[in-house]
Amino acid sequence: MYKRALSFGLLVILVDQVTKWWAENALGNGERISVIGDFLTFVLVYNPGAAFSLGTGSTWIFTIFSVVVVTAIMWVLRKCESRAWAITLGIIAGGAVGNLIDRVFREPSVGQGHVVDFISYNGWFVGNVADIALVLGVIALVIIELLGIECRGSAPVEEAADE
Which candidate in 16, 38, 102, 131 is catalytic? Predict the structure, then answer.
């Protein structure tokens, strides 16, 4: 299952980085592209914080947190036998690494780089593919937990119906 998780994680990272490259090249001059009216637009933003620009000025905390989360996911995946868990954790790790790459390699400095965001949701917030992967991955993780699927491969225990 580790290879499956790695495949999904690498796919998320690849799509995230390619779309960020596209955004910087297509939107770098302040251009705004309407996708669905004003509800969904593409506009380039460099985010120095986390979601909703929270924690601006404390980017290094998010860098450390991302490293811890990705490390924990890799540790859990070593013994994970569930396809659902592996795919979900791979997607979450991919999203975390996608934004971690920005924090490590972008301006203004190592560990404090600004994340490239470009998908604007009705002006409420601006995100990227890594953010979408993180949100969908966490939602899937909650569903997996509610279904009782265990990472170690045990299926949910179903009680026999009383006859």
Answer: 131
Q: For the chain, how many helices (H) and strands (E)? A: 4, 4
What span, in angstroms and rounded, lies between the C-alpha atoms of 29 and 38?
19
Spans of all domains in the chain: 2-147
pTM of the prediction? 0.86
Percent of the chain with pLDDT over 70: 86
Give me the residue label for tokens 């006859």: 163
16 burial type by CB count under 10 A (0-12 exposed, 13-18 middle, 19+ buried): buried
Is residue 131 among the annotated active site residues? yes
Of 31, 59, 34, nearest to 45 by C-alpha is 31
* pLDDT at residue 64 in the model: 87
Catalytic residue, candidates 16, 38, 117, 162: 117
Closest listed residue to residue 91, CA positions, set 131, 146, 55: 131
